Amino acid sequence: MICLCAGPFFQLLGDAMWLTGNYNFSWNVWRETASIFFIPTGFLLAKIIERESFWWAMSCCALFVIGCFGSAAMMPLFRLGAFYPIETHNAFPAIVTSVLGNKSFAETLYLPGLCLSVSLVIFGVGFLKYKSLKTATSIAFIMSGIFFWLGNAAEMDIVLVIGNISLLITFCYVGYLTSSELTSAPVATTLVRNVKPISFEQADI
C-alpha cells in the first residue's frame, strides 16, 4: 500500500517542481525516489494478472521494471542542468544534447524509459482481458500510460500533471482493493491453518 501511494505521489511532486523551472536539482531526486517505489508495485500488479496468465503478467512486469530503471537513468543527466546551461527548464543540458545524435545514444536513453508507459497500457489491457479489475480501473491504467507518454515524450505539461494525478488515484484505489481483499479473507481459512494435525495414536477410535 505504501509503494502504491508513494510512487506516483513522489513522481507528481517531482514533476510539479520540474514544471516550475526553479528546482534544477531537487525534482530529479523525487523522480528517482518514485522509481524505487514503483518497482515493488510492478510485482504486485503482475501478481494480480498471474492468476489468469503467467506470461502476460511477467511480460508486463518486465516492461514495467525496465521502464523504472530507464526513467531513473535519465535523472542524473537532467540533474546536470544544475551545473551546465539548459535551453528550457524541461530540456537536457547542452552537454547532453550535444551527444544525443551520436552512436544511438538517444535510442538507448529513451527506449528503456518508454517501457514504463507501454507497460501501463499493457497492464490495463490485461486487466480488461482477464477481468481482474473493474473496467473503469483497467481503462484508467491505459489512460495513465498514454498520459505518461504524452507528458514526457511529447512534453505536454498539462497532460503530464493530469497523468500523474490519474496514476496516483488509480494506484491508491488498487491498494485499497488489495488491502480490503487481505482483511476480508475467509475466517475458515485462518482456522484451518491453525488446526494441528492429530496422529493416529491420539485419535479415539
Describe the structure.
With 205 residues, this protein is an all-alpha fold. It has one domain. The chain is 75% helix and 0% strand. The protein is built from eight helices and no strands. It has helices at residues 2-20, 26-50, 54-79, 94-97, 105-130, 135-152, 157-183, 187-194. Helix 2 (26-50) runs parallel beside helix 5 (105-130) and helix 6 (135-152) runs antiparallel to helix 7. The chain is globular and about 55 Å long. The relative contact order is 0.12.
Tell me what portion of residues adopts beta-strand conformation: under 5%
N-C termini distance: 49 Å
**Helix/strand structural class:** mainly alpha
Low-confidence stretches: 186-205
- The tally of domains stands at 1
Rounded to an integer, what's the Rg over CA atoms? 21 Å
